[in-house]
Design a protein that fits this description.
The protein has 18 helices and ten strands. By secondary structure, it is of the alpha+beta class. Among the domains are: about 50-150, OB fold (Dihydrolipoamide Acetyltransferase, E2P) (Beta Barrel), CATH 2.40.50; about 170-310 and about 350-410, no CATH class. Strands 1-2-3-5-4 form a five-stranded mixed β-barrel. The radius of gyration is 25 Å and the shape is globular.
């Protein structure tokens, strides 16, 4: 269906027949390439040794993450720790590159509690793994030294430095903004950011990379470094920063596009930003084809796509407020069908929230955290004094964000749209943007734009049947009764799960979703 949509788009743009046919053929070849190189799910576990990657998390008495077997296959591993001392020893250094001799066993596959539950198989597939295993017995053999291991250790060291030098109330924010780690972020803060639609502020993306690159470039120019040399320094430094920042799709997207542009300047061959963007997508998919299934990859590239190809809307907006509003509206329009399909809800208040918090975080809070990080390496007495001044202000802002996130009627959660409705929504968005650019048929295209939204909103109210759902969300049974035409919804909650007291070190924190690579636990 996507190829049909692409063919219609090329015909509409009146592209040459050979160009249109060639594009479709290349698209089909790429589709079969991705299908061919995607890892096949393993039927049996024949693993004796695993080497941990940098994508893991120690939570409670479990280590969960991705590891590579001696045969080069990636596995999702759940390793149970025996003692608190054992856990403390493993938390002192990065596990990336550490080789474990293991005796694995299969993980019992339990049926999903409901159709909207977390899909473990899809998560494993989106990370290029062949399956999952459980480990209860292991022995540390050695530590493999490599460039990736070295960068993972540097990232871990910076994380430990933040935890040792920053106030506890500022640590989670600093880890998220500086190294892309959101493990420590409190659930109430994350819920507030999700409600306001500004979670992306803690995902290191194009704006973070652009700001950091600008700071480095201008600093080098100010001290007398030639522009060509400054560009060369950025060519080397930006990929290193991508590893330190966790290597999320949004980071590599912005870094790769910047690298392509810098390379074109180095060889004095100017390249258009949309061509650099396209080369970035192609390279990403060729190297890691399974990334197309990651939501972070989809949202990151779609948002960037909407901004690159919508410069005509920003050109005539001289006011900063209007430019910010247009950017927010464009990004929301281009990603709303996927957000509804994946998460079944979107934030209505995000339009206003992004106008305020995007510049606040990008130009004030992020630079402040960068300065604080630099000062903690230079003089802890100076940084402690500045922390003493900054922390109360930041806590007040945090309280304000939690309060704003608690206000009602901020989320729109109509239904999970079908794939057909998702493609319809994208078609109407494209027609709407084209009509604005050409200043033609604005009323008709505006009607088409809201048509899929109206269908999603009213469909549940057209159902004449009575639905009784026995719902299991992992915390006890619940019954949902939906009356005809959704005139009334009744929930019968039968209570939670009986949990026995356990040692403090075994208690698990709630799973925090990372940009493009969340670590799941049941």
């Amino acid at each position: 269906m996507l190829f049909v949509f692409l063919f219609c788009w090329l015909v509409y743009k009146q592209k040459h027949l050979f160009f249109t046919i060639g594009t479709i053929i290349i698209g089909i070849v790429c589709y079969f390439y991705v299908q061919t190189v995607m890892p096949m799910q393993a039927s049996e576990i024949h693993v004796k040794e695993i080497t941990w990657t940098d994508v893991y998390r120690i939570n409670g008495q479990y280590i969960r993450g991705f590891a590579i077997s001696e045969e080069g296959e990636k596995w999702y591993v759940q390793l149970k720790l025996g003692t608190e001392t054992e856990k403390a020893a493993l938390m002192k250094a990065s596990l990336a590159g550490t080789v474990f001799q293991v005796i694995p066993e299969e993980v019992e596959k339990r049926p999903a509690s409901h159709v909207y539950a977390f899909n473990m198989d899809s998560y494993i597939k989106s990370n290029g793994a062949v399956g999952q295993m459980a480990v209860k017995t292991y022995q540390i053999i050695e530590k493999n030294e490599s460039f990736l291991t070295h960068m993972a250790e540097k990232r871990f060291a910076m994380k430990m430095h933040i935890q040792n030098t920053f106030p506890s109330s500022l640590q989670s924010e600093a880890e998220a903004l500086l190294i892309g780690s959101r493990e420590q972020m409190p659930s109430d803060i994350q819920n507030a950011y999700q409600t306001l639609g500004i979670t992306h502020l803690f995902a290191i993306s194009g704006l973070h990379v652009a700001l950091l690159a600008l700071m480095v470039y201008e600093s080098l120019i100010r001290i007398g470094v030639r522009r060509e040399t400054a560009n060369l320094v950025l060519l080397i430094a930006l990929p290193l920063y991508a590893f330190i920042a966790g290597g999320a799709p949004s980071v590599w997207r912005s870094v790769s596009v910047t690298e392509i542009v810098l390379l074109s300047l180095l060889f004095k061959k100017k390249i258009a930003i949309d061509d650099a963007f396209s080369l970035s997508v192609i390279g990403f998919v060729l190297l890691t084809p399974w990334v197309i299934f990651q939501i972070g990859f989809q949202l990151s590239y779609l948002a960037a796509f909407s901004l690159i190809y919508s410069s005509v809307f920003l050109r005539n907006r001289t006011s900063y407020v209007m430019q910010s509003f247009v950017i927010t509206a464009l990004c929301q329009l281009i990603v709303y069908p996927i957000l509804l399909y994946q998460f079944y809800e979107i934030s209505i208040s995000s339009f206003l929230a992004n106008l305020v918090f995007v510049p606040l975080f990008s130009f004030i809070i992020l630079p402040i955290n960068l300065i604080f990080l630099f000062l903690t390496y230079i003089s802890t007495s100076v940084s402690d004094f500045l922390f003493h001044l900054y922390e109360p202000v930041r806590l007040l802002l945090g309280d304000l964000i939690i309060y704003l996130g608690s206000l009602p009627y901020q989320m729109w959660n109509p239904m999970k749209p079908s794939l057909l409705l998702v493609f319809l929504a994208y078609g109407t968005v494209m027609f709407f943007l084209i009509s604005i650019e050409r200043k033609k048929q604005l009323v008709f295209c505006s009607f088409l734009l809201v048509l899929p939204m109206g269908i999603m909103q009213i469909t549940p109210y057209l159902d004449s049947s009575t639905k009784i759902t026995f719902l299991n969300v992992g915390q006890g049974d619940c019954i949902i009764i939906e009356m005809p035409y959704r005139k009334e919804i009744i929930m019968i909650d039968t209570g939670g799960v009986l949990r026995f007291e356990q040692d403090a070190w075994k208690k698990q924190k709630k799973t925090m979703k990372w940009e493009g690579k969340s670590l799941y636990h049941s």
